[in-house]
Design goal:
binds magnesium ion; globular; binds adenosine-5'-diphosphate; OB fold (Dihydrolipoamide Acetyltransferase, E2P); alpha/beta; seven-stranded parallel sheet
């Protein structure tokens, strides 16, 4: 929703000449009045509150103090002169520093006078100071409400050099808001506004920039956060609905021979309740006549592969082929081996197709796929890139979604007239809020229970000086016949350095665990696939006892006899990565251990990551902590999702608003899928407008 006034190029704004306009475009991507208005303050300072000088502890934000000037001096020669005034409150002292306008400030400052001082503290020579603060003489009257909250805008060095610091930007914004042509058209229906008791859009924009009171600021924030999240959810709901309409699904109504045989005669254990529930959810999808598009989340070892296999057997019972795609060749082979094992004795034809499949065999597989004699195909995602054709492809299972882009998923759509059902499996739990936004077009199933008898991995944080103890423990476990992983971090400055780091580690390990008594393997990312596979195989066959590796072992590899994992420089790993790594042990019947090694000096974040790992094995809890520590920006898959473009909402902090937005959006779409009803005109129009602005949106999901 916009108006000609809001579309006016920013150079026509009072206070903006060509130079500033240019900078606004380059630095902040602001071209129009309207865009400047959506550049919201990133924080607010409450002017009725004062900081104690002794409480100043970070140099990142603006603060306000009330203090007396106790000392004034100028330092340096004429042209490099600076003025330092020391201010004191009951709690301590801080320096105020001016590098420019020294003469003028000197005249203005009154010694022993108390001032309200506003600025951004920094550290110089180990002492806190505030460069170029703003000073005011305190007044006795309480501030009028409309001046209590002060907006702070992000700025850049270049903008500041043209007078556009947070105050300068605020002035420009004010120029727009005070113009008589300023109208902010409404983007929500009267019904929504009433139901949620939101303030209107115009009022929200005024108050987000110049809060008339703390209370109105809060209302403005709620209104704008809701609007932002609501439109993301509305778009997702509409797309999802559209997909259901467009993509008729194969109906798998039968559960027959294959499933029954497998279930009653081949399955050596009872399914967990979580597995049963998920299979039920999948069966409902498969029988609905719509195409299934489901995300299956569950920790490593929770039995996802088994669920996938049962689903493939259902497809087979309905005379359809399936394929399973893994992110790497090792994983594809592992899936192939374990699924072949589970299917022995059943009349199912299963093939493996990867980059290293020989041409002759490849042709044979292609033929089998086309005449329908091959039932299940397992491979890397090269499967969809290459010209592989199926006779009747009914189901695609994708393992480890986060390595598998949305665009690739979309390719599957094109392959068949009727789109196959899609089951995406991931062992990297996704926090709920993120999943709602990131994978809003997928339905989600969660396996939140491990098969019985699993002993949770015992995790310990060990400091460097106690390394000897760790080595003793390793010897003991090897003596009992177990195997051990020792993982080194990628330092990422250069591959060569990383390799050196690993090789040094390897050499050190060999010295402690010398041959022939001990045998040590090494795997790293720069080895050829074949070499890697061979080393992994030696470890799997117990020909080596210790596997020294970088994070290449992170995904998938399954060596149940390995019961100890030592992670070197654990502080260098992200939480998700630590969790994935730990998933490599605890796969057998023995008690397993994960030892996180680090020095004493740790950042607060690293400490939190390590203590989270020690405290819990729950992947979802770990994922939530990860999201809180890092924000969504660094998490895999978020870049393309649009949640990074959020201007005001925060999917971690605004979970409640997000949920509300989601349920309202889906309610509206289920009543009016195309938003064609008169009362929803305003929503349809706003959505269209946003699509025009952000062309990329259409490509997502
Ligand atoms: P995921 O794919 O989630 O990592 P898998 O399906 O590979 O997990 O299962 C891990 C191991 O647990 C496999 O050896 C599998 O046979 C076994 N398993 C799966 N479900 C059960 C169950 N309900 N009871 C006992 N063992 C199970
Ligand atoms: Mg698995």
């Amino acid at each position: 929703m916009t108006t000609p006034f809001l579309e006016t190029p920013v150079e026509y704004l009072k206070g903006v000449g060509p130079a500033r306009a240019d900078l606004l475009k380059k630095e902040l991507n602001i071209h129009t009045f309207g865009e400047l208005l959506t550049f919201f303050p990133f924080r607010y300072v409450d002017r009725s509150k004062f900081y104690q000088i002794a409480d100043i502890h970070d140099d990142s934000s603006y603060i306000q103090i009330k203090a007396r000037i106790v000392h004034i001096q100028t330092i340096g020669a004429l042209h490099h002169q600076r003025l330092v005034a020391t201010a004191r409150d009951a709690s301590g002292e801080i320096d105020l520093v001016w590098f420019q306008g020294v003469k003028w400030v000197l005249e203005m400052l009154t010694p022993q006078q108390e001032y309200v001082i506003f600025g951004k503290p920094g550290i110089y020579n180990g002492r806190w100071n505030i460069p170029h603060p703003e000073l005011e003489i305190p007044t006795q009257q309480p501030l009028p409400l409309s001046e209590v909250v002060r907006p702070i805008y992000n700025s850049t060095e270049k903008l500041k050099s043209k007078g556009l610091d947070f105050k300068g930007i605020g002035k420009l914004v004010r120029n727009i808001l005070l113009n008589e042509k300023f109208i902010m058209p409404e983007s929500l229906t009267p019904e929504i506004i009433q139901r949620l008791r939101l303030i209107n859009r115009q009022e929200a924009f005024v108050n987000i920039h110049f809060p008339q009171s703390p209370e109105l600021l809060k209302k403005a924030q709620t209104r704008l956060k809701f609007e932002e999240l609501f439109y993301i959810q509305l778009r997702l709901a509409k797309q999802r609905h559209g997909r259901l309409l467009k993509h008729q699904g194969h109906k798998f109504l039968k559960v027959a021979e294959y499933v029954n045989q497998f279930y009653h005669h081949h399955l050596t254990f009872e399914l967990t309740n979580a597995q049963k529930r998920v299979i039920k959810e999948i069966r409902v999808d498969l029988g609905s006549g719509n195409q299934m598009n489901r995300l299956l989340q569950g920790d490593v070892g929770s039995g996802k592969t088994l669920v996938a296999l049962m689903t493939m057997l259902i497809a087979l019972d309905n005379s359809f082929q399936s394929c399973l795609m893994a992110p790497t060749e090792i994983l594809a082979r592992q899936h192939f081996n374990s699924i072949s094992g589970m299917l022995t004795g059943l009349n199912v034809v299963l093939k493996l197709l990867t980059g290293s499949t020989r041409p002759a065999e490849r042709r044979e597989i292609q033929e089998g796929l086309q005449n329908g004699t091959v039932h299940l195909l397992i491979g890397t995602h090269a499967l969809i890139e290459e010209n592989v054709k199926f006779r009747r492809l009914g189901l695609v299972v994708i393992d480890e979604q986060h390595r598998f882009g949305v665009a690739q998923r979309a390719k599957l759509w094109e392959k068949n007239v009727v789109t196959p059902h899609i089951l995406v499996m991931t062992a990297t739990p996704i926090p709920r809020t993120l999943a709602m936004t990131l994978y809003g077009d997928l339905d989600t199933s969660i396996i939140d229970e491990l098969p019985p008898g699993r002993k949770p991995v015992v995790t310990k944080h060990v400091y460097e000086p106690e390394r000897e103890k760790v080595f003793r423990f390793i010897r003991e476990k090897i003596g009992e016949g177990r195997q051990v992983y020792i993982v080194f971090p990628l330092i990422q400055e250069s591959e060569t350095l990383d390799l050196k780091n690993l090789e040094d580690g390897y050499t050190a390990i060999i010295q402690v665990f010398p041959p022939p008594q001990y045998t040590v393997s090494m795997v790293h990312g720069r080895m050829k696939q074949k070499e890697k596979d061979d080393e992994m195989k030696r470890f799997l066959e117990r020909k080596t006892q210790i596997m020294v590796a970088t994070t290449v072992i992170e995904v998938g590899v399954d060596v149940p006899n390995a019961s100890v994992m030592v992670i070197e420089n654990a502080e260098r790993f992200g939480l998700a990565q630590l969790h994935q790594l730990r998933g490599r042990v605890g796969r057998g019947s023995d008690q397993s251990y994960c030892i996180l090694m680090s020095g004493f000096e740790l950042s607060a974040e690293a400490r939190k990551r390590i203590s989270t790992m020690v405290r819990t094995n729950d992947g979802f809890e770990i994922a939530e902590t990860d999201l809180q520590l890092r924000g969504p920006g660094d998490l895999q898959g978020t870049q393309q999702s649009g949640i990074m473009d959020l201007r005001i909402a925060d999917i971690v902090k605004d979970e409640k608003i997000l949920k509300f937005a989601r349920s309202l959006a889906s309610e509206i779409i289920s009543n009016d899928p195309m938003l064609s009803k008169k009362e929803n005109d305003i929503l349809a129009l706003h959505l269209l407008n946003m699509d025009k602005k952000q062309q990329n949106w259409g490509l997502i999901s």
